[in-house]
Specification:
Elements lengths: L5 E5 L4 H12 L3 E6 L9 E4 L5 H15 L4 E4 L14 H29 L2 E6 L3 H4 L5 H21 L4 E8 L5 H4 L3 H10 L8 H11 L11 E4 L8
Parallel strand pairs: 1-2, 1-4, 2-3, 4-5, 5-6, 6-7
Helix pairs in contact: 1-8, 2-3, 3-5
C-alpha cells in the first residue's frame, strides 16, 4: 500500500466524488470532502464549502488542516452543468458553469498547493471530462471549462514539477451516476453505441484511477490527461 496521505475531494457527497472519497478511505488515507449539502461517505470529514466563495474555502481548508494535517492530495471534482444549445445559452448559464468548474478549481488548487510546496510533495488531480476534448452539442460552457483544466494541469506541472508535485487530469466518459440515471433511455442507448467498450463505467472505475495517480507508483506522471471513457474519446 502507498503511504497514507491527507486527501481533500471537492464535491464528495455524490456520484464520482463520493466514489473517489470512498476508495481513498478504503485504502487507508485520511479523507476530507467539501459538500454544499449532504454528507460524504463513512470515514470522511465533511466540511461545508462552495468553490465559488473564497471565504468559505478558507474556512474549509482551516478546518481540514486542523483535523487531518496539511493537504497532500487534492481531487478537484466539484462541478455543475447547465446544458443548452449555444443559441439559447444565457450569459449567466455560461458564467455560472465557468465559475464553478474552472474558477472554482483554481481557487482550491491555489489554496492546496501552498502546503504542498512546503512539504515538497503533492498530487493535484483535476476531474475533467471526455467532452473537454471531444466536445458535445449543448455543452459549450461545460466542455470549455473541462478543456481549460488541461492547460491548468500542464502549467502547474511546469511551475511546481521540481518540488515533488504532480498535476494531472482524469477525463471520465459516461459513468453510471444519479446524473446519468435521469436521462431518457433512448439517449443512453445512443451514447452507448458510440462507446467501443459498449457500456458505461462504474464510479469505482474512475475512483481507482484517481487513487493510483495519487500513489507513489505514479510519481513520474504529470501534465497527463488520463481517459476513463471506454475508448469514446480516442485520438483526443
Amino acid at each position: 500500500m502507498s503511504t497514507a496521505r491527507t486527501v481533500l475531494v471537492t464535491g464528495g457527497n455524490r456520484g464520482i466524488g463520493y466514489a473517489i472519497a470512498q476508495e481513498f478511505v478504503a485504502q487507508g488515507h485520511r479523507v476530507a470532502v467539501t459538500v454544499r449539502s449532504g454528507e460524504g461517505p463513512a470515514g470522511t470529514l465533511a466540511v461545508k464549502a462552495d468553490v465559488t466563495d473564497g471565504a468559505s474555502l478558507d474556512a474549509a481548508f482551516a478546518e481540514v488542516e486542523a483535523a487531518l494535517g496539511p493537504i497532500e492530495v487534492l481531487v478537484a471534482n466539484a462541478g455543475i452543468t447547465k446544458d443548452t444549445l449555444l443559441m439559447r445559452m444565457t450569459d449567466e448559464e455560461f458564467e455560472q458553469v465557468i465559475d464553478t468548474n474552472l474558477n472554482g478549481v483554481f481557487r482550491v488548487v491555489k489554496r492546496a498547493t501552498k502546503g504542498m510546496i512546503k512539504a515538497r510533495f503533492g498530487r493535484v488531480i483535476l476531474i475533467g471530462s471526455v467532452v473537454g476534448l471531444l466536445g458535445n452539442a449543448g455543452q459549450v460552457n461545460y466542455s470549455a471549462a473541462k478543456s481549460a483544466l488541461v492547460g491548468m494541469a500542464r502549467s502547474i506541472t511546469r511551475e511546481l514539477g521540481g518540488r515533488g508535485i504532480t498535476a494531472n487530469v482524469v477525463a471520465p466518459g459516461f459513468i453510471d451516476t444519479d446524473m446519468t440515471a435521469t436521462l431518457p433511455q433512448e439517449h443512453l442507448d445512443a451514447f452507448k453505441v458510440k462507446i467501443p467498450a459498449g457500456r458505461f463505467a462504474s464510479p469505482e472505475e474512475v475512483a481507482r484511477v484517481v487513487t493510483w495517480l495519487s500513489s507513489d507508483d505514479a510519481a513520474y506522471i504529470s501534465g497527463a490527461v488520463i481517459p476513463v471513457d471506454g475508448g469514446l474519446g480516442m485520438g483526443h
